[in-house]
Amino acid sequence: MTKVTIFGGSGYAGTHIAEAAAVRGLQVTSFSRRESPEQISGVSYAIGSILDAGDRARALDGADVVVVAVSPRGDMAGQVRPAVAALAADAAAAGVRLGVVGGAGSLLQSEGGDLLMDSPDFPDDVKPEASEMGGVLEDLRAAPEPLDWFYVSPADLFGPWAAGEYRGEYRVGGDVVVRDAEGNSTISGADFGVAVVDELEEPKHHRTRFTVAY
Q1: Domains: count for the chain
Q2: Mind listing the pLDDT tens digit for each residue in 17-49?
């Protein structure tokens, strides 16, 4: 049985990943800094932070893969990038696969084009967060070969404000944002969670970033 640990397992993306993983019968442990108000059947919950070395060690212990689904906002701003770098080094030494949920801001608007975060329509208040997660991707790309990692960016429109409904489908892209025929880039939390768990169960992306959208 695949053993998965999720940092930020009580957040929007983390909750959907945990739920999809539990439904598949994976052994799931969710780490969050505070007790999760709503707990999913089949998921074990622990209090812990990616910023703490001891908690990172606990998360890696016995895991097949650790997924980071935390955002560098509020008091976490500026701290997520070095914490993921430290976790990546430890994961490489432990032989544990690492997955990181990043935002859409570091995706390209078109092949060879500008970053989504550089679009005039991209919210200014989200740019620092997008920039830090872009830095996380840069660090992973420079990580030594023993580390098996993947970085997944959701669609441009993704979050509790656009939760959507489960469709049981999604499309996969690389570094360019995926849009539908009307130019929209969306995905529900439920389908995003399924997409990540599909990658956990049948890995197709090694040491690379991919994106998912309708």
Answers
A1: 1
A2: 999 999 999 999 999 999 888 899 999 999 999
